Structure formats: C-alpha cells, structure tokens
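Researcher: We're teaching a course module on how sequence relates to structure. For the next exercise, students receive a sequence and then see the predicted structure as tokens, so they can try to spot secondary structure elements on their own. Here is the exercise chain.
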Amino acid sequence: MVVAYDGTGFHGWQIQPGVKTIQGALGEAASEMTQEKIFVQGASRTDAGVHALGQVANFKTHSGISAEDFRRGLNALLPDQIRVMAAEEVGPDFHARWQARGKTYRYRIFRGRVMPPFEFRRAMHFPWALDEEAMMEAARKFEGRHDFTSFAASSGDEQEDGEREMEREIWESRLVRAEYAFGLISATDTSAPMIGEEQKFQEVEPHYLDYYVRGNSFLRYMVRKIVGTLLEVGKRRLKVSEVEEIFEAKDRSRSGVTVEPDGLCLMALEYPDPTDSLSEVRKERRGI
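Model: And here is the predicted structure for the students to work with:
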C-alpha cells in the first residue's frame, strides 16, 4: 500500500499502548475487514507530528479480498487523516521496510510575516531574516557518505550510541524556493535586513523554502537537525564552510537545534526490481 497521512494528533507511525498511531489505525482497519489479527509493516517509522505522502506499508492475509477492495474498504474505516492512495498484491517475500533502498523527505518552511491557517502544522513558520542563498549552498554539503553523529538524536544509552552505525549516504540534498500557491497576501520586497537580528521581520513576498533530501536511510531526527543547522547558516551564525567541521567533530552540540516535526513529510520510497530476493537486498543494505 502507498499511504498518505497528516501526522497531527498521532504519536507517530509505530504502535504504542494507549495512544493513536498510524500503524495501529491501519492494523485495526485491516483486522476489521479480514476478521484476522493483522500486523502492518511500514517502510519508515515516522515520529509524532510527521506527515507522509508516499509511505509504503504491507501486511499478510488469507483473505480473498482484492487489493482495490482493500483500498476502498480501508479508506471507509480509517480516520480522514489517513488515506490508502494505492494498493496491490505482492509476493510473500515483500517487506516494506527491509526492501526499501531509498527514501525522500521534504521539510517545508513558510516565509512570510503571517502564517496562513491552512499551513498550520504542515510547515514551519520562519518570518525573520535569512540568507537563503547561503542555506542553499550549505544544503549541498550534506551530499555523499558521511558520519552523521552530529546530526542524530542520542538513544539515551552511551553504549548503544557507541555501537550504532552512524554513516549514511545522501544522494541528493537541496534547498529550493517555491512560490506560495495562493498569492493572497502581498508584501513589499525590500532589501534584506541585517542578519542576526532574529526578531526583525524580513518583508518578502510569501514563499516556501523546501528542503529535499534523498538517501539510503536516515537516523532519528537527522533531517530535522540538518534543517536546524541550515537555519543557523541562514541566520549567519554558522558559515557554510563550518558544516564539514561539524561532521568531523561528531558532537551533537555543534549542529543546529532539532526543528519541530510539523514541516517534515515522507515523500517517496524506492524499491528494487521485484525479481531481487529479500536476502540479497538485506546483504546489500549491510554492505556485504
């Protein structure tokens, strides 16, 4: 299944006792349809408040219900914030998480003095002065294979942190300016104010800054910490050249803050040719 959802009000993807989760809602709906105990596997365990347009999930069933009827039935049972966009029957070896070879995330920042209400919880609002060109340059520094210790959340266990594989390969990292679709708010485009005066509004035509990052896999909070670091560059508190130093430092305190989850969306997953075996895919992911 390709699943889209508004993560607002949910405690992330993964099932947790006593709280609403995306995985839990899908499992309950599928179980109601099949009268079986269904466990839904997801490609990415998105955090609380994070959205998705292209999450991929799968489950196994003995039911004879067709994939298209599952799509319609699940959408009838699920809350409006969760939609199954497409569904198809796959082989018994398919696994949404372990066979995923690539993911694309987008983090959206709304640039304008007033945040329109329909952008609430779907974008981060940043109306203050930013050097957007410097941020775009810094975004490219994250491409390639790096140790992302400085850009990941701690597990809370020193030993576990020391044993985790922190290297990740990023194929594409870019920040782009996107026009604000509705054009209902006008503002005078003036020369940029002094960077560093964070409380000084930057009067620009409302627009988005969209950060796109595509890679083989991601550490927890990694994208949100990268965006926090790009904002520090935009405020001219960090130089573009310092990004490489932060990688080398392997020190979380050197990177930017972990920005709020509202602007983060899982856009797409990539999968191998269906003839590739699951064991071969797992070997490739482990670098064997």
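Model: If you want an answer key for the exercise: Residues 2-97 form a domain with the Alpha-Beta Plaits fold (CATH 3.30.70.580). The chain is about 25% helix and 20% strand.
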